[in-house]
Design goal:
five-stranded mixed beta sheet, mainly alpha
C-alpha cells in the first residue's frame, strides 16, 4: 500500500510587493521638526547685529517709508519687495525684518514638504528637508531679503502640486497649488519660472495620462500671472519688454555658453558673489557634498523605478536640473544662492538613495551609524561656513554705520544724495537717496547731480586711488572710516551740506 506523504506548512506568507516599504504617506512630525529647527537656527545665528547686503538694500528701499528707492535694474523682479512690504511699513528695524523672514521661511519649508505627503514616504521628506535646510546657503538666505530661497520653496511646492494634479484629476486643491506656486516663482524671478515650467510642460505632453488641457493651462497661466508685473514694468520704465530683456542680458554679462561648474564649486567656500570668480579653491572640504550629489540623485532615480516611484522622483530631478542650467552653462559668474531651487528639488532623489543605502547595507546598525557620522561631518562644515558669513555681516553693519554717522556729522542729512563707492548701502543707512552717474545703475547725469548739490547735501564717495568727478573736485574733502575690503575711503561733500556744531567746534579748537 503506497504511503501518502503530507506536508505540514505554516501560514502562507505573501511576498512583499515591490515598493511596499516605500509607500507614500505617514505623519508630518519629521518635516515639522526640520522646519522648526531650521527656523531656530536662523533666529539664533543670523538675527542679532546683521545688516542689509547691497542687493537687500535695493529691494528694501523700494518699500521703506521715508527713504528714496534705490535704482532698480532691469534683471530684478519685485516679488521679494512685496513679501517684505507689510513689515517695512510697520518698522525700519532690520532685526524685526530678519525675524519675520525666518518665521516665514520655516513655515514655507514645512508647507512645501507637506505638499509631497501623498507622493513620498514621510522619512524621505524628512531627510530631504534636512539635507536642503542643512546647507549654509539655505540657512543664510532664510532671513535675507533675497528671492532665491523663495524660488526654491515655490518650485518644491509647484512640482509637488503638479504631480498630485497629474495623478488625481479630482485633486482641485493641487491644481490651484500648481497655479499659485508657478505664479509665486514667476513673481520672484520670471526667468526661473520659465526654466521650471519647461520640464513640467514636456512631462504633461509626453505622459498620456497627464495630457489634460486644464493641467497645461494652469501651468502656463501661473507663469503668465506671475510675470505680468515684470512685463508691465518693462513697458512703463524700460522702453518695452525687448529693451528690458536686452538690458538685463547686458547687466548679467551677456548670456551665452559659459561653463560655471568650477566657479560655483569655489563659491561654496563662502563667497556670496564670485564675479569675476578668480579665487583659489583653498577649502576642498566645502565641496565634497557637491560631488556626492549627482551620484545620489542618479541612484535615487534608478531606485525609484524599482519601488514604483519613478515619476514622483524623476520629475523633480528633471525640474531641478532644468533650474540649474542657466547658472551652470549660461552665466559667466557664480553665486551659491543661484542653485538653491535646484538643490531643493534634487534633495528628494538624494534622500531616497541615502535611505535605501542605510536600510540595505549590512549590518544595518553599523551602516546607519556610518551614514549619521558622514551627515554630521557635513553639517559641521556647513555651519563653519555659515558662522563666517554671519560674522562678516555683523562687521559690515558696524562699518557702514560708522560711515553714515560720519557723513551725518559733515552735514549730509536728509534730504541728501550719496553717489560713488558703495552709495546704495551708505545712502540707505544715512537716509539719503543713492544716485550713480555711470555703470549698470546709472540713474542721473553729472550735470543733474551737480545741480542738485546747489540746494541739498550731496556726497561723492571714492576709495583707493580713484579721483572724484570734475564737478566735485572743489568740494570739501573728508576722510571716512574704511569698509571691509575697501580702504582709503573719502567723501567729497557739497557746499550745501552744513556741518554739525560739534564738528565746527572741534575744527576751531584744532585751528
Amino acid at each position: 500500500m503506497a504511503q501518502t506523504s503530507t506536508t505540514v506548512s505554516g501560514p502562507r506568507r505573501t511576498p512583499p510587493r515591490p515598493g511596499a516599504a516605500w509607500r507614500a504617506g505617514g505623519g508630518l512630525a519629521g518635516p515639522a521638526a526640520v522646519a522648526v529647527v531650521y527656523t531656530l537656527v536662523q533666529l539664533a545665528l543670523l538675527v542679532a547685529g546683521a545688516g542689509l547686503g547691497w542687493d537687500e538694500t535695493v529691494y528694501v528701499s523700494q518699500v521703506s517709508p521715508g527713504v528714496d528707492a534705490a535704482f532698480f535694474s532691469a534683471p530684478r523682479a519685485r516679488g521679494i519687495t512685496f513679501l517684505v512690504a507689510p513689515l517695512t511699513a510697520l518698522t525700519p528695524s532690520v532685526e524685526a525684518l530678519r525675524v519675520y523672514l525666518a518665521l516665514l521661511s520655516g513655515a514655507g519649508l514645512f508647507l512645501a514638504l507637506r505638499v509631497w505627503r501623498p507622493l513620498l514616504p514621510a522619512r524621505v521628506l524628512t531627510l530631504a528637508g534636512a539635507l536642503f535646510a542643512g546647507l549654509w546657503i539655505t540657512v543664510l538666505y532664510g532671513p535675507q531679503v533675497m528671492p532665491n530661497l523663495w524660488v526654491a520653496l515655490g518650485s518644491l511646492l509647484a512640482v509637488g502640486c503638479f504631480l498630485r494634479a497629474a495623478r488625481d484629476r479630482a485633486d482641485r486643491a493641487a491644481l490651484a497649488g500648481l497655479g499659485a506656486g508657478m505664479a509665486f516663482v514667476a513673481l520672484m524671478r520670471p526667468t526661473d519660472a520659465c526654466w521650471l515650467a519647461l520640464p513640467l510642460t514636456v512631462a504633461a505632453l509626453c505622459v498620456g495620462a497627464w495630457r489634460r488641457p486644464v493641467l497645461l493651462l494652469t501651468l502656463v497661466a501661473g507663469v503668465v500671472v506671475g510675470c505680468a508685473p515684470w512685463v508691465v514694468e518693462a513697458y512703463l520704465s524700460y522702453g518695452g519688454l525687448v529693451a528690458r530683456l536686452r538690458r538685463a542680458d547686458e547687466i548679467q554679462g551677456a548670456l551665452g555658453w559659459h561653463l560655471a561648474f568650477y566657479d560655483q564649486l569655489r563659491a561654496l567656500q563662502g563667497r556670496l558673489l564670485c564675479r569675476p570668480c578668480d579665487v583659489a579653491w583653498r577649502r576642498p572640504g566645502t565641496g565634497v557634498w557637491w560631488f556626492a550629489l549627482p551620484p545620489l540623485v542618479a541612484g535615487g532615480v534608478l531606485l525609484a523605478a524599482r519601488v514604483r516611484l519613478r515619476a514622483v522622483v524623476l520629475v523633480p530631478a528633471l525640474a531641478g536640473l532644468s533650474l540649474a542650467v542657466p547658472y551652470l552653462l549660461l552665466i559667466g559668474y557664480a553665486a551659491p544662492r543661484f542653485l538653491l531651487p535646484a538643490y531643493a528639488l534634487l534633495a528628494l532623489p538624494a534622500a531616497l538613495c541615502l535611505l535605501w543605502i542605510a536600510e540595505a547595507a549590512r549590518p544595518r546598525p553599523v551602516a546607519a551609524a556610518g551614514l549619521a557620522l558622514l551627515l554630521g561631518a557635513h553639517l559641521v562644515v556647513q555651519y563653519g561656513i555659515l558662522d563666517g558669513a554671519a560674522a562678516r555681516a555683523r562687521v559690515n553693519r558696524t562699518a557702514f554705520g560708522r560711515v553714515a554717522a560720519e557723513l551725518g556729522r559733515q552735514g549730509v542729512r536728509p534730504p541728501c544724495v550719496v553717489s560713488g563707492e558703495e552709495a546704495v548701502r551708505i545712502a540707505f543707512r544715512a537716509r539719503c537717496a543713492s544716485r550713480q552717474t555711470g555703470g549698470h545703475d546709472a540713474s542721473i547725469t553729472p550735470a543733474r547731480l551737480a545741480a542738485l548739490a546747489r540746494d541739498r547735501p550731496v556726497a561723492v564717495v571714492v576709495s583707493g586711488a580713484d579721483e572724484p568727478p570734475a564737478y566735485a573736485r572743489s568740494w570739501r574733502l573728508r576722510r571716512l572710516p574704511d569698509l571691509p575690503g575697501t580702504h582709503h575711503l573719502r567723501a567729497y561733500v557739497s557746499p550745501s551740506a552744513g556741518r554739525s556744531p560739534s564738528v565746527l567746534v572741534m575744527e576751531v579748537i584744532f585751528i
